[in-house]
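Consider a concrete sample entry:
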Amino acid sequence: MNGEIWELWSTRTGNLMEEFATEAAALAAVAEIITAFGPAYLDAVVLFRGPISGEGDRQPVASGVALVALTRQEQTNAERSAPTSMQSTDDEPGTRALHAPAHGDD
């Protein structure tokens, strides 16, 4: 759905923590929270999704343990789709293999 916004809210304070243009950006921020404060911190955090226009209700996506699981799943998916050093980059424009000069090549 176009025109969505993703928001992290603290249930402890009732405050908006941050808003994001994509789910991936929101979950990357959640991953940083997990690293900095531990997964238990998310017991008081809810991820909402809703229209940018402000018209219509924001829908809760996940909180607590479910938010940790969603974030870890996103990280796993990102790792699977990221190129590895074993993959060829020959077909990727603008990439080239680095060549360390052999003795006498410099």
Summary: The domain at 4-81 is CATH 3.30.1490 (Dna Ligase; domain 1). Confidence is low (pLDDT under 50) at residues 91-101. The chain has one domain: 4-81.
